[in-house]
Design a protein that fits this description.
The chain is α+β, with helices and mostly antiparallel strands. 50% of the residues lie in helices and 8% in strands. The chain contains eight helices and four strands. Helix 1 packs antiparallel against helix 6.
Length: 221
C-alpha cells in the first residue's frame, strides 16, 4: 500500500496559519507547506482564489478527501473540524463533548480572532493612531480575556479537561497578548494554559515553520 499523499497547506506564519500547522503536527498527518506571502499580496493570486474565495490564509487541499477524492477547504475553523474528523483526534465523537468544543471554537473565530486582529491593527499597524479605535478594541479584547480566564480557572482546557481544536484555535491569538495591550499577569489561568500549550513538542515544531519569513511590521491574520 502506497504512503498517503500529503495535505497541501497554504500558509503564512500568523495566528490563523499556526492553527493548521499545529493541528497537523499534533495529529501526525503528512503535509507540505505552500507559502502564501501575505505581505506581498500573494493571497490575491487567481490560483489561490480558486481554493480560498475570501483571499485569506489558511486553506488546504487534501488529495485523499471524502470518497478518496481531493477536497479543498478554506476558513481555519472548518479546516480544524475537518482534520479532527479525519484523524479522530482533538475533536471528540461524543455529542455533548463536541458541542462544548464547537462553542469555544466559534467563540474564537467570531470574537477573539477578529477583535484581537483589530486591536493589533489599530495599536501597531495603522498609519494614524486613532484613540477611539485603540480604546474600543483593546477594551473588547480585555473583556474576552476575562471570559477566557474565567473558563480556564474552572477547567484545564477550553472545552473541559482535554486539549482540543478549541485550544488550538485560540492559542495563536492569545500568544500575542502583548500586542493587544493585555497585562497577562492579570489572567493567571490564561498564563497557565499558555505555558502548557507552548510546552507541547508539536506546537513548538509548528511555530518554527516559516518563522524566518515573518518580518516585523507584518499584519496578523
Amino acid at each position: 500500500m502506497s504512503d498517503p499523499k500529503p495535505i497541501e497547506v497554504f500558509y503564512w506564519p500568523t495566528p490563523n496559519g499556526w492553527k493548521i500547522t499545529i493541528m497537523l503536527e499534533e495529529c501526525g498527518l503528512p503535509y507540505v507547506v505552500r507559502p502564501v506571502h501575505i505581505g506581498k499580496g500573494e493571497q490575491f493570486r487567481e490560483e489561490f482564489l480558486a481554493i480560498a474565495p475570501n483571499n485569506k490564509i489558511p486553506a488546504i487541499i487534501d488529495p485523499d478527501g471524502p470518497g478518496g477524492e481531493p477536497i479543498s477547504i478554506f476558513e481555519s475553523g472548518a479546516i480544524l473540524r475537518y482534520l479532527g474528523d479525519k484523524s479522530g483526534q482533538f475533536y471528540p465523537r461524543d455529542e455533548r463533548q463536541r458541542v462544548a468544543v464547537d462553542e469555544w471554537l466559534f467563540w474564537q473565530v467570531a470574537g477573539l480572532g477578529p477583535m484581537a486582529g483589530q486591536a493589533h491593527h489599530f495599536r501597531i499597524y495603522a498609519p494614524e493612531k486613532i484613540p477611539y479605535a485603540i480604546d474600543r478594541f483593546t477594551a473588547e479584547v480585555e473583556r474576552l480575556y476575562t471570559v477566557l480566564d474565567r473558563r480556564l480557572s474552572q477547567h484545564a482546557y477550553l472545552a473541559g479537561e482535554d486539549y482540543t481544536i478549541a485550544d488550538i484555535a485560540s492559542f495563536g491569538w492569545v500568544k500575542l497578548w502583548d500586542r493587544q495591550g493585555i497585562d497577562i499577569e492579570r489572567f493567571p489561568a490564561i498564563k497557565r494554559w499558555l505555558m502548557a500549550i507552548k510546552a507541547r513538542p508539536a506546537v513548538q515544531r509548528a511555530l518554527a515553520i516559516g518563522a524566518d519569513g515573518r518580518k516585523r511590521g507584518e499584519q496578523d491574520g
